[in-house]
Design brief:
Elements: H1 21-31, E1 39-43, E2 55-61, E3 79-85, E4 88-94, H2 109-118, E5 122-131, E6 141-150, H3 177-190, E7 194-202, H4 210-218, E8 223-225, H5 229-237, E9 241-251, H6 262-292
Parallel strand pairs: 1-4, 1-5, 5-9, 6-7, 7-8
Antiparallel strand pairs: 2-3, 3-4, 5-8, 6-9
Helix pairs in contact: 1-2, 3-6
């Protein structure tokens, strides 16, 4: 598929959405000295510290990238970085855009399509999530195998941009099976227990009621959060391979006596970040090893 790489910096081709992925990618590439990321990473709430691992990194505030909104949520620095991680060049969003901030769903198209315009081979999404399973408590990691979209919307509603993908998008195996298998193997080698489960995406910013948690569990959810799914939809529309990990920050409402709030989310993310850091480094390194082996 041929992806658009140039355009009017004031328009993405979608009504009401500012910014052009080709223009954004060109700016990022120029700031990064022409380096081309092979892996894209999106860091969720409280997980931005992973960006400090990048060597020879260039950090670009979102405000300097045409069309990118600014981050308004604690734990989201609002920067796009390009740097080296265990032998591979990565592009990294240190903070994401949420629907509960008031953004239109279509706003999610710009950063994800920018990754595609940069030429990444795969996209690793991370988030902070509440667990619906007692055995996957705060500080643990969950590999997302599938999702439930209870945001009641998605970024592809409206006119389709045929330059990026087909009108109708299948989401079977949206979370790439081969990349999931690679992460499971890497986690086992590192001695990290990597749970697997279904992520239930909610619009927020409200935390769930106990009754809602019981309902989501019946429907097959293993964790709940307020992001990621719109990014997965846009990425799959653009033909990007996707894998996603939830850092479990708390047990869901009604499952413990600890009140659920954003401060708890940040504390839980800090605990999970140690194992997540090791796993992300190993995952990035696997891309370098794959190129080195000629595979």
């Amino acid at each position: 598929m041929s992806l658009p790489v140039t355009g009017d910096p004031g328009s993405s081709g979608d009504p009401g959405v500012a910014g052009d992925p080709g223009v954004a990618a060109a700016l990022i590439r120029a700031r990064a000295g022409g380096r081309a990321p092979r892996l894209g990473i999106v860091l969720g709430s409280g997980l931005g510290g992973l960006a400090d691992l990048l060597d020879d990194a260039v950090a670009i505030p979102y405000a300097e990238i045409p069309g990118f909104p600014t981050s308004t949520v604690a734990g989201h620095a609002g920067r796009f970085l390009v740097g080296e991680l265990d032998g591979v060049t990565v592009g990294c969003m240190q903070g994401r855009f949420h629907l509960y901030e008031g953004h239109l769903p279509a706003v999610i198209k710009l950063p994800i399509r920018t990754f595609a315009a940069l030429g990444v081979e795969a996209l690793l999404l991370t988030n902070a999530a509440g667990s619906l399973r007692n055995e996957a408590g705060p500080g643990s990691l969950m590999l997302i195998t599938d999702h439930l979209n209870f945001m009641w919307t998605n970024p592809l509603i409206g006119p389709n941009d045929d330059a990026w993908g087909e009108r109708f998008v299948g989401l079977e195996d949206a979370y790439d099976p081969a990349l999931r298998s690679r992460l499971l193997e890497l986690a086992a080698g590192l001695g990290i227990r990597l749970h697997e489960g279904v992520y239930c995406a909610l619009r927020g910013p409200l935390f769930e009621t106990s009754a809602e948690i019981r309902a989501y569990r019946v429907l097959g959810a293993d964790a709940v959060g307020m992001s990621t799914v719109p990014e997965v939809i846009v990425a799959r529309h653009a033909g990007l391979r996707v894998v996603a990990i939830s850092a479990i920050t708390n047990l869901a409402v009604g499952m413990s006596d600890v009140p659920v709030d954003h401060e708890q989310t940040l504390r839980g993310a800090a605990i999970a970040a140690a194992d997540l850091t090791r796993l992300v480094r190993a995952f990035a390194g696997s891309f370098a090893a794959k190129r080195g082996s000629g595979g």
